[in-house]
Specification:
- The chain is of the alpha/beta class.
- The protein folds into four domains: about 325 residues, Alpha-Beta Barrel (TIM Barrel), CATH 3.20.20; about 50 residues, Alpha-Beta Complex (Oligo-1,6-glucosidase, domain 2), CATH 3.90.400; about 45 residues, no CATH class; about 70 residues, Sandwich (Immunoglobulin-like).
- Helices cover about 25% and strands about 15% of the residues.
- The protein contains 15 helices and 20 strands.
- An eight-stranded parallel beta sheet has the order 11-10-9-5-2-1-13-12, covered by helices on one side. A five-stranded antiparallel beta sheet has the order 14-15-16-20-18.
- Helix 10 packs parallel to helix 14 and helix 11 runs antiparallel to helix 12.
- The longest helix has 17 residues.
- The protein starts with 10 loop residues before the first strand and ends with a strand.
- The chain binds 1-O-alpha-D-glucopyranosyl-D-fructose (TEU).
- GO terms for molecular function: alpha-amylase activity.
Length: about 550
């Protein structure tokens, strides 16, 4: 596989709304990101995945775009965006734009026109259908609860929305739509961006009349066309969000010879703590089974070979904070946050750090739905309440899996509103910011921040991490996730005890060097070694 800059890079995701406010409106902005570029350069990251900053009415916090070539007024101006790109470049940090092209906002000019009349030249930019027997066209459901069809009085038809009713799906069958998108992508490429994260890109080739939404028949045709018309051959990074991907599907998206994408986000590990089956989804809670986590992540580590590339993540703006979800955000907060950092960053693929993960930010439990902001959460609550679910059960699910958990403001210091804003924050600030914040992490050489910084440095120093073979240790206790990385005659052993109880690991060979650990360990010797609660380390054994 030809080496590319993103193969040994680490990407940092910023949710602009919650990163840093500079004008006191309680909402993060582009100037706030520029203000912290030195912090990110210190961390050592190579690129920023910037969640949408385009003009939007914020029905889905920017994932409902009304003008792809204008900046949301709360976030600043196009000049601010150009400054961010150039200031990032000055620090060797690329800006990866979030490309949301499965749907637009219902305030986008195309949709405003499309819904005016059936003869409108923009009508076929979206998916319109007649009622069937006076009802919705078929059983397609929105991810945000309810039917995926919204009736529009003006022309007496339904339009498709796989997300909110204010996010109408674009019709990618229409070549004019595709060309409009490619023109827009080239607008941003000409601005000097480093690539694109592609929102639910596996949905763009849908067959609504057959209720096919993911990985539709023309998905690879469209992506090869997009590649050729925009980023192809320009050394830009692209990552597709593909919730249903298997390793075989991932190769189709990310095999360099296919000229589609650089990599994809797969979510198989994300679904391990939920019930599966008819009508079940992330809100139906199930404890994590560590052996399943080992099996799933190891499968992804060995399945792609040289025919594809992995993204590595625990967190993003849609997921609960890992230290609360699968770690321990009380007694073993620091140990478990470092454990998940070590476990992930020693794997093969491009790691992603979500804002605040590098300091161990946690979930924020609510006690009433009035404290929730996210449309997905609120819609689920209302739908399930009407179906008879108990409020307590719904609040428990929201506290475990709600997207607001990831969207509480970045915790910069222990001042008012954690230094995020001088105004009223758009979403509650976690009160634990008094203890968990950037300032405190930077002042403590043994903090979670410096564990992430060291892991990023190690990736730059060792081709073993980037290219080495992966081998899961199978003769370990359930709770111990241990694997080897092997490259050019060198072997590293990574071990993590994902539990509050001690568990033993047999280390068969002599230990040459301790690379990193989250406990003070004078020495690790061969033989039986007892890992303490949430203990993780990396040793060189050959
Ligand atoms: O998410 C795709 C998506 O399906 C998620 O909403 C996911 O199913 C759900 O959040 C699981 O909790 C992308 C963006 O990441 C998300 O923020 C947007 O809301 C969504 O697409 C629509 O653009």
């Amino acid at each position: 596989m030809e080496k590319k800059w993103w193969h040994n890079s680490v990407v940092y995701q910023i949710y602009p709304r919650s990163f840093q406010d500079t004008d006191g409106d309680g909402i993060g902005d582009l100037k706030g990101i520029i203000q912290h570029l030195d912090y990110l350069e210190n961390l050592g990251i190579d690129a920023i995945w910037l969640s949408p900053v385009y003009q939007s009415p914020n029905d889905d916090n920017g994932y409902d775009i009304s003008d792809y070539e204008a900046i949301m007024k709360e976030f600043g101006s196009m000049e601010d965006m150009e400054c961010l790109i150039s200031e990032g470049k000055n620090r060797g940090i690329k800006i990866i734009m979030d490309l949301v092209v499965n749907h637009t906002s219902d305030e986008h000019a195309w949709f405003v026109e499309s819904r005016k009349n059936k003869e409108n030249k923009y009508r076929d930019y979206y998916v319109w259908r007649d009622a069937v027997n006076g009802e919705v066209p078929n059983g397609l459901r929105s991810t945000f609860s309810g039917t995926a069809w919204e009736f529009d009085e003006t022309t007496g038809q339904y339009f498709l929305h796989l997300f909110s009713k204010r996010q109408p799906d674009l019709n990618w069958e229409n070549q004019k739509v595709r060309q409009e998108i490619y023109d827009m992508m080239n607008f941003w490429i000409d601005k000097g961006v480093g690539g694109f994260r592609m929102d639910v890109i596996d949905l763009i080739s849908k067959v609504p009349d057959k209720e096919i939404t993911g990985n539709g028949p023309k998905i690879h045709e469209y992506l090869q066309e997009m590649n050729s018309a925009t980023f192809g051959g320009k050394d830009l990074m692209t990552v597709g969000e593909t919730w249903g991907a298997t390793p075989e599907i991932a190769k189709l998206y990310s095999n360099p010879e296919r000229k589609e994408l650089s990599m994809i986000f797969q979510f198989e590990h994300v679904g391990l703590d939920q019930e599966h089956g008819e009508g079940k989804d992330k809100w139906d809670l199930r404890p994590l089974n560590v052996p399943e986590l080992k099996q799933v992540l190891s499968k992804w580590q060995v399945s792609l070979g040289n025919d594809g590339w992995n993204s590595l993540f625990w967190n993003n703006h849609d997921l609960p904070r890992i230290v609360s979800r699968w770690g321990n955000d009380t007694i073993y907060h620091e140990k478990s946050a470092k454990l998940f950092a070590i476990l992930l960053h020693m794997m093969k693929g491009t790691p992603y750090i979500y804002q605040g993960e590098e300091i161990g930010m946690t979930n924020y439990p609510i006690s009433d739905i009035s404290e929730a902001e996210d449309i997905e959460t609120i819609n689920m609550y209302n739908e399930r309440l009407a179906l008879g679910f108990a409020k307590e059960t719904l609040i428990e699910s929201i506290n475990a899996k709600g997207r607001d958990n990831a969207r509480t403001p970045m915790q910069w210091d222990n001042s008012t509103n954690a230094g995020f804003t001088t105004g009223t924050p758009w979403l509650h600030v976690n009160p634990n910011a008094k203890e968990i914040n950037v300032k405190k992490n930077l002042e403590n050489p043994d903090s979670i921040f410096y564990t992430y910084k060291k892991l990023i440095t190690l990736r730059k120093q060792h081709d073993l991490i980037v290219w080495g073979e992966y081998e899961l240790l199978t003769d370990t206790p359930n709770e111990i996730f241990a694997y080897k990385r092997i490259f050019n005659g060198e072997t590293w052993l990574v071990a993590a005890n994902i539990s509050t109880e001690p568990h033993s690991l047999y280390i068969p060979t002599s230990v040459k060097e301790t690379i990193i650990s989250n406990y003070d360990i004078s020495e690790i010797s061969s033989g039986t070694f007892q890992l303490r609660p949430y203990e993780a380390f990396v040793i060189r054994i050959l």
